[in-house]
Design goal:
Elements: E1 13-18, H1 23-28, H2 34-40, E2 50-54, E3 60-66, H3 70-73, H4 80-86, E4 91-96, H5 100-113, E5 129-130, H6 138-156, H7 164-177, E6 181-186, H8 196-202, E7 210-216, E8 222-227, E9 229-233, H9 242-245, H10 253-267, E10 273-283, E11 295-297, E12 303-305, H11 313-326, E13 331-336, H12 340-346, E14 351-355, H13 358-371, E15 375-378, E16 395-396, H14 405-414, E17 421-425, E18 429-430, E19 440-441, H15 446-456
Parallel strand pairs: 1-3, 1-4, 4-5, 8-10, 8-13, 9-10, 12-16, 13-17, 14-15
Antiparallel strand pairs: 2-3, 6-7, 7-10, 11-12, 14-17, 18-19
Helix pairs in contact: 4-5, 5-6, 6-10, 8-11, 10-15, 11-14, 13-15
Length: 459
């Protein structure tokens, strides 16, 4: 689907956004017919409240959207998405109550509220439409919304229709849309190409593993995005229980998120040399599956003892990160649904990230706050390095003890990249519906990164 603002034909219904904090003044500023109607209908400006005001002919003269108090708004985001779903169909324009970043967030919230994953069912009725508010970059917001829709669609699609083949097809469509080049190394060709970990993790599946390599742009700083593309994760021989396997179609959420971010970057024509690397595999069980206590040699030459075949994401990322480093990029960003430990630490709503650059961390935190895409910095804690050194090999893919799982995974990845590096351990899933975020696949961290890139790369 395409998410877009409505064309203003001059008859859009005025929408007044009213907070509880200044209810009396806001009501006093309403058109004459709206004030008594709002009072008679008990409109209080409560968060999510929506009210239409009739005109003399039975139509809608204007509409009111409750915006709550600042304290209540701080407990969530995209509040106008709830209004978009509550109002009758029609074309609306925001006539007052928001400005600056709040207006931009509201416009994005409205577009994202129109997203629905309807590939396998009858499409839902369209929601109310919004004219692009004055004073915002409407094209940029629409680009961001549609890139987020791409990410959600990829994650929501079940593994039966989103294996390594289909993920490659999606990457090729994206590249074609933006005149980018694509190179894909598939199946046993991964062995002479020296991607041993990607091949090992994916070889047990009937769906061939591969490394997808997209390039776009020939001027500016070099930016490489690396996304974990495990299209389904059974856990391998360390088989997951059914309760843990149920959401594993989303284990390619890192790949989906970097493809969405790449779409934003290319559509906005950012002056960078962009590279996107996606190791796409299915972690399955068969006679040639890799085993616990196997020792594998990565592209970088480091040996890895396998102590859990269910810690496969860091293995495929290791080879991709090594390749990214060979190009000497100015910044490498990896995104992956990597550890349950990250969910325990910060829950489903925050995007944990790692970087050794205090400056980049500050830039990202400020950008995240500005665009309502919350992140949280986690530490590359050097004293934990010993936890990923098993003695028999250079590295351990799954340290015992159960502590600091997200940190040790990040430390493992850091061993494979020397360039400036940022890693996101995201969830990629909205566990229950919220304004503009239906239950299902979700992009995390991409909008914050997009906002921070001009500062991080001195664009």
């Amino acid at each position: 689907m395409t998410l877009a603002f409505a064309v203003d034909a001059g008859a859009a219904i005025p929408l007044y956004v009213i907070s509880e904090d200044d209810l009396d003044q806001a009501l006093a500023d309403l058109p004459d017919q709206a004030r008594p109607w709002a009072k008679s209908q008990g409109f209080t400006g409560a968060l999510g409240q929506a009210l239409t005001v009739p005109d003399a002919n039975g139509g809608i003269a204007c509409a009111l959207a409750g915006y709550g108090t600042a304290k209540k708004r701080a407990r969530g985001r995209f509040h106008l998405g709830q209004t978009a779903k509550a109002l009758p169909q029609g074309v609306y324009r925001i006539a007052g109550g928001l400005e600056g970043r709040a207006l931009e967030e509201a416009a994005l919230a409205w577009l994202l509220a129109g997203y629905a994953f309807d590939r396998y069912r009858k499409p839902a009725p369209a929601i109310a439409a919004l004219v692009a508010p004055e004073g915002i970059d409407a094209d940029r917001i629409a680009i961001i919304a549609n890139a987020e829709a791409l990410t959600r669609d990829l994650i929501n699609t079940p593994a039966s229709d989103m294996g390594p083949d289909e993920l490659e097809e999606a990457a090729r469509r994206l590249a074609s849309d933006h005149d980018a080049s694509v190179n894909v190394t598939t199946g046993d060709d991964l062995i002479p190409a020296n991607f041993p970990l990607i091949h090992t993790v994916g070889r047990a599946s009937t769906r061939a593993p591969r490394l997808i390599d997209i390039r776009w742009g020939d001027k500016g700083p070099k930016l490489t995005l690396v996304g974990k593309g495990v299209c389904f994760d059974t856990g391998g021989l360390n088989l997951k229980p059914g309760s843990s396997m149920g959401l594993m179609k989303k284990d390619m959420g890192g790949a989906a998120t970097v493809l969405g971010l790449a779409q934003m970057i290319m559509a906005l024509h950012l002056p960078v040399q962009l590279r996107v690397l996606v190791p796409a595999v299915e972690n399955s069980v068969s006679g040639n599956a890799f085993r616990p206590q196997d020792i594998l040699t990565a592209r970088k030459g480091l040996t890895v003892e396998i102590n859990n075949t269910d810690a496969e994401g860091r293995l495929v990322l290791a080879d991709a990160l090594t390749l990214s480093d060979e190009d000497e990029p100015d910044l490498v960003i990896s995104m992956a649904t990597l550890t349950g430990a990250a969910r325990v630490a910060v829950g489903s709503d925050l995007s944990p990230f790692y970087t050794e650059s205090d400056a980049h961390a500050q830039m990202l935190a400020e950008a995240a706050a500005a665009v309502a895409d919350p992140v949280w910095r986690m530490p590359f804690h050097d004293p934990y390095e010993a936890m990923i050194e098993p003695g028999i090999a250079d590295l351990d893919n799954a340290p015992s003890g159960g502590m600091a799982g997200s940190i040790t995974a990040a430390l493992f990845l850091r061993r494979f990249v020397e360039s400036p590096y940022m890693h996101f351990d995201i969830y990629g899933w909205q566990p229950s519906s919220a304004p503009s975020r239906p239950k299902g696949g979700i992009g995390m961290g991409a909008r914050a990164v997009l906002e921070a890139l001009p500062r991080m790369l001195n664009l």
